Amino acid sequence: MSLRARLGIVLALGVVQTTLYFRLNHHPPRPSHLLPLTALDRAIPFWPGTVWAYFALLACELVLPPLVRTREMFLRLVVAYVLAMSVAFATYALYPTHYPRPEQSNPSWVWQVLLAQDTPECCLPSGHILVPLIAALALSRERRSVWPLVLVALLAPSVITTRQHYVWDVLAAVVLAALAWIASGWVLARRAR
């Protein structure tokens, strides 16, 4: 599969994901819930400067998937992505959650961009972890390298240090990504038969 084709598919999925996300993020269909804070949520400091790592994690959603070169692995990535995001969007619609953001007296311009675009809604599961993690799984399998998983692991704490997500959201995203990855292998194996 050509790079152009992979980019086209990733951009198309990105447009659909962004449209649905902003719709649910800005207009939750039912009252939103707060989740209980874990001891880890309380222990991890609010660190607004990690907003740069947060945006880098978001960039991974577009940058990592086209790096998957083989048709089979890219198809598995897309199937896992569709399965996982279907569950995520159903959860955002049926059981919306939000994380109350801390006040800042003098937020940076990049923080203001984040606040203007992304409301505190659509927390569980963290799509900001889910998509890069699925892409990293595909890349790691294809390249037989851990660097994509290490990259996502290094950037992942930013969703908590920016108070965009609970620890629960990250755990749910990791479990959902793993289940979607396993299910995508099963779906494609059945299709091949």
Q: Shape from CA axes? A: globular
Estimated structural class: mainly alpha
The SSE order reads HEHHHEHHHHH
Described by strand count, sense and barrel closure, the largest sheet is: 2 strands, parallel
Number of domains: 1
Which range best describes the helical content: under 10%, 10-25%, 25-40%, 40-55%, 55-70% or over 70%?
A: 55-70%
Could you tell me the mean pLDDT? Answer: 94
Number of strands: 2
State the end-to-end CA separation: 22 Å
Strand order, biggest sheet?
A: 1-2
Radius of gyration: 17 Å
What ranges have pLDDT less than 50 throughout 5 or more consecutive residues? Answer: none
- Percent of sequence in beta strands: under 5%
**SS element count, helices:** 9
What's the short story on this structure?
The chain has nine helices and two strands, in the order αβαααβααααα. The chain has about 190 residues and is mainly alpha-helical.
